[in-house]
Each structure stands twice: as C-alpha cells, then as structure tokens.
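Technical annex, item 7. During the second reporting period the consortium partners agreed on a shared format for inverse folding records so that results from different sites could be compared directly. Each record opens with the tokenized structure and is followed by the designed sequence. A conforming record, contributed by the partner at site C, is shown below for reference.
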C-alpha cells in the first residue's frame, strides 16, 4: 500500500531533529511529530489518540531547520505546523510484523507557541 497526498499537521516534535547528508552531499533534516486528537466517547469518557509522522525536509528548508535546531528552537516537545507531501508506506519490522510508516516530505514548517511557553515546560 502506498498513497501520496498533501497534508497539513499541527503537533509536537517527538524525536530531536537529525541533520543528515545523502552520498552526493544533499542535506536533509528528519524528526518525528506526534499529532493527538481528543474526543468524548459514547460513555462520556475523554479519549485521546496519537499518530506519529516521520518528517523530512530538504534543501533550503532543511538548512533553516538545521539552524533552528542548533539554536534550540526546533526541539523535542515544541509545537509545530507542517505542510507537505504525505505518503503511507507498508513495511515489515524486524519480527516480520506488518507496519505502516506515515512519512511527510515537508514543504513548510512553522514554529508555534512562544519561547516563554517553552521555558515554562
């Protein structure tokens, strides 16, 4: 199963951003992002579900995100807005269990919230 579409997400950085380079020297920045949804079930109980996305940025956006990560602005727990190209990929983990990876190639990434809010966490 593989499908692609445009997607817009608001959530929190899960894994610290990692800057990598392809063999030909092209930079990319990758991080995970948690997107949670809260709803009330039929019994009146609050339910929360979280989906995890793998975000990858390339080119100038990767350079910008690398700088923000180096200065501590793009970090674990930070709320971000991401829009990009979404692809759901099926794979098998090391135990042979089928899994789905939710991958986004970022077009835009914006930091949300204030620095003061981050410092109060």
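Designed sequence (site C submission):
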């Amino acid at each position: 199963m593989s499908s692609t579409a445009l997607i817009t997400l608001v959530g929190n950085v899960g894994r610290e951003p990692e800057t990598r380079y392809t063999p030909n020297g092209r930079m990319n920045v990758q991080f995970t992002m948690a997107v949670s949804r809260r709803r009330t079930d039929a019994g009146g109980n609050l339910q929360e579900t979280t989906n995890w996305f793998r975000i990858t940025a390339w080119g100038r956006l990767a350079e910008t995100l690398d700088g923000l990560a180096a200065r501590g602005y793009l970090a674990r727990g930070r709320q971000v807005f991401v829009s990009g190209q979404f692809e759901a990929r099926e794979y098998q983990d090391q135990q042979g269990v089928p899994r789905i990876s939710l991958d986004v190639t970022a077009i835009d990434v914006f930091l949300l919230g204030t620095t003061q809010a981050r410092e109060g966490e």
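The radius of gyration is 16 Å. Residues 39 and 98 are 28 Å apart (CA to CA). All partners now use this format for quarterly exchanges.
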